Each structure stands twice: as structure tokens, then as C-alpha cells.
Amino acid sequence: MIKVRDGELSKVMRDEMKPNYLCEGPRRAEVLELCMEMALHLGPHVFLTQSRALMDRPDQSETLRNVSVPSLALCGREDSLCPLSRHEMMANLMPNSRLDVIEGAGHMPTLEQPEKTNVALRRWLEE
User: pLDDT value at position 117?
Assistant: First the structure.
């Protein structure tokens, strides 16, 4: 956050954030470029606001336990930011949930594996 405040958003995204979010694969460079464009377009204020929100957010386990509607926990198998174990925990907390893991994706399966993500969403919606 200090580097971003000091005007180094592009460097932080390039060196620290983006490489840790995505799975290796044929679309990686394209998705990395899109993430960089979005980050620079939104700017440092949004990055800092989001970072503070993540740091200060309360535990929502009880909220998940009280979800009574059918729910989907969806994640990429290679997500190092929010690993599979975290998604398994969330799915286990929700009484009427399904966990779907997208192969060949990291933190952004909708961008990394859009077709597989859409198949998982359709399957869940049709249940």
C-alpha cells in the first residue's frame, strides 16, 4: 500500500499482484494485460480503498451458516490468493451449497477460463 501511495501502482501490479493471481496458461499474458489496464484505469485510490476493506473486513462465517438459498462457491484450482481450502470451508459453512473448481484457473476463472466458468454456472443454475 505504501508503494501505491508513492505512485508505484503499475510496479506493484506488475511485480507483486498479477503474477501471484493467475494460473500459467495460454491466456495468461492477455489476462495480465487486462488486469493492468483495469488497475491503472481505476487508479491508486480504488486500489487503496479495496486493500483497506480487505484488511478490516470482519469474519463472515456466521453469515454463511445462515445462507438458506442454494449457493455456489466457485474457484480456480490454482488460486493462491484464496486457495481451494478456503472455498471448501465457505461451501461447508453454507447448508445448501455446491463447490465447483475450475481447472486451469487461478484467482480470476471468469477471465482465465470463461468457457469452463460458464459451464459451471449453467450447471448450477439448472440444478
Answer: 97
Q: Which numeric CATH code is attached to 62-126?
A: 3.40.50.11320
pLDDT, tens digit, 9 for 90 and up, residues 63-92: 999 999 999 999 999 998 889 999 999 999
Alpha-carbon Rg for the chain, nearest whole angstrom, is 16
Residue 100 · residue 74 · CB < 8 Å: yes
**Whose CA is closest to 23, among 92, 109, 99?**
109
Residues of the chain with CATH 3.40.50.11320: 62-126
> Which of 40, 28, 3 minimizes the C-alpha distance to 106?
28
Which stretches does DSSP call E strand in 45-106?
Answer: 71-76, 97-102
Contacts of 48 (CB under 8 A, 6+ apart): 1, 4, 5
> Model pTM greater than 0.70?
yes
